[in-house]
Write a structure and sequence with these properties.
Blueprint (H helix, E strand, L loop, with lengths): L15 H19 L1 H9 L13 H14 L1 H12 L7 H7 L11 H12 L7 E4 L5 E2 L3 E8 L4 E7 L3 H18 L10 H14 L2 H15 L5 E2 L12 E5 L4 E2 L10 H22 L1 E3 L7 E4 L4 E4 L5 E3 L2 H16 L2 H11 L8 H14 L9 E2 L5 H14 L10 H18 L3 E2 L1 H5 L4
Parallel strand pairs: 5-10
Antiparallel strand pairs: 1-3, 2-3, 3-4, 4-6, 7-9, 8-11, 9-10, 12-13
Helix pairs in contact: 1-2, 1-3, 1-7, 3-4, 3-5, 7-8, 10-15, 11-12, 12-13, 13-14
Length: about 450
């Protein structure tokens, strides 16, 4: 397969009709692999056994991922989340190819790139730089990253937003909702509107590079001199509405640590550091970088440090929500069902009037998810099947309509963050002392 930098530039489809057409083509590519009937049955399935996994040929999977990569925006975000841990849905071969969505989208054509730079910096923009690499280092759902050196010697990473992506967010969300309902992926009676509105707000925030610059600086201040992390500095003089300029930092994507030449000690160190950081984000920083994409973290092997990237999804957390999650964590660690129920009511997971049998099922699910917090010593994610057990139990409850109360939409992004941390530990097959890391923040 060709490397990222060799990929041809592809224009971003910008109208709702064109994006719906591409999304339909992506769904068609998936359906071609398993059949339309199989696609609908998969969407409605309550038990993902070995026999119900999606089995696509490498060529079919590449067509599907290429279609999502070409669209960028909210649709590609969906594909990235699907690829973070596809072992329960896709075969290992298909999951491996899907994982490419974590690191790259289709880059925009040179003509589009130059047009964006001229619009943001003005004619003669190239005079600012001693060197500008036109081949992007990476591309994601919102923009692509270029390495540049200024005339005054600053080595920068420039994140340049795809034209039209910000304007396409609303139509992408509407199109995804339409397909989800058409394929029967939404349980009867579930009101998606609050969640769609939350996702819409979040994606608009991610496309606001001014807000991201502010969040990056706030997060950098909170991390301070922690030796495990590097947070790049913002360069305001070269940052605009559609370009974010920051320090360039060396490193490899964090999930590369799962394979040689990286060692178990490096995997354990990286997973432990990021788990500790996730807990501090909620209970100490009150600012959570809620996008769990593995591509947001680089590993600097020379200094054994982690480079933190992409703060478009940084979400402030209210004192009330922090207190409620602290109570829930304390109750789960103590394995106190009554306290778990009280905290779940406070967070909106359980309604005061919900049937006790329904309450019991959700409490059991929360106790199951908290399994790693009640042990002593290091939890071995490489030997655990906890993800499968939690996923299947939660999905069964979801489609059975057993989740009578729907928590506040802002909790969705916290769930996404901590599920991402769990997936990363699992991907690295790491051993992490979760109970030891949680104790200081409780």
């Amino acid at each position: 397969m060709s490397s990222f930098s060799d990929r041809p530039g592809l224009a971003v489809p910008s109208t709702r009709l064109s994006r719906l057409w591409h999304l339909g083509r992506a769904t068609g590519d998936l359906a071609a692999g398993i059949g339309v009937k199989g696609l609908i049955e998969l969407a409605r399935s309550r038990n993902h056994s070995e026999s119900t996994r999606i089995r696509l040929s490498p060529e079919q999977t590449r067509r599907f991922t290429e279609r999502l990569a070409r669209m960028r925006g909210a649709v590609m975000k969906m594909g990235q989340l699907m690829s973070m841990d596809g072992s329960d849905i896709f075969t290992p071969e298909a999951a491996q190819i899907m994982s490419e969505l974590r690191e790259r989208a289709a880059p925009m054509p040179m003509s589009q790139l130059v047009a964006v730079l001229e619009r943001e910096y003005g004619r003669g923009w190239e005079g600012v730089f001693k060197r500008f690499d036109f081949k992007p280092l990476a591309a994601a759902s919102i923009g692509q990253v270029h390495r540049a050196e200024t005339r005054d010697g600053r080595l920068l990473a420039l994140k340049i937003q795809f034209p039209g992506v910000r304007a396409s967010i609303d139509s992408d969300i509407d199109n995804l909702a339409l397909l989800a309902r058409t394929l029967g992926m939404i349980p009867a009676g579930l009101d998606l509107a609050p969640y769609l509105e939350g996702a819409r707000r979040q994606l608009h925030q991610e496309a606001d590079y001014g807000a991201e610059a502010d969040a990056l600086e706030a997060y950098r201040d909170r991390v301070g001199s922690d030796p495990d992390f590097i947070v790049p500095a913002v360069h305001r003089d070269l940052s605009t509405t559609h370009v974010l300029a920051m320090d360039f930092a060396e490193g490899v994507p964090i999930d590369r640590l799962a394979d040689p030449p990286y060692t178990r000690a490096e995997r354990d160190h990286a997973a432990t550091a990021l788990t500790r950081l996730a807990m501090r984000e909620l209970f100490d920083f009150a600012l959570v970088q809620s996008d769990p994409n593995f591509g947001n973290y680089l590993y600097d092997a020379t200094h054994r440090r982690l480079v933190l990237l992409d703060f478009g999804a940084a979400v402030p957390v209210s004192d009330g929500l922090i207190t409620a999650y602290r109570r829930l964590a304390q109750a789960v660690v103590a394995d106190d069902r009554a306290s778990i129920r009280a905290a779940a009511i406070e967070l909106g997971y359980i309604g005061e009037a919900d049937p006790r049998q329904q309450d019991a099922a959700l409490i059991d699910l929360l106790r199951l998810a908290g399994e790693p917090l009640r042990g002593s010593g290091h939890y071995d994610f490489g030997q655990s099947d906890l993800f499968e057990r939690v996923y299947r139990s939660g999905r069964e409850m979801f489609y059975a309509g057993a989740l009578g109360s729907v928590p506040a939409p802002e909790t969705m992004f916290l769930h996404r963050k901590f599920m991402g941390a769990f997936m990363l530990c699992r991907r690295l097959r790491a051993r992490v002392d979760l109970a030891g890391l949680l104790a200081p923040v409780l």
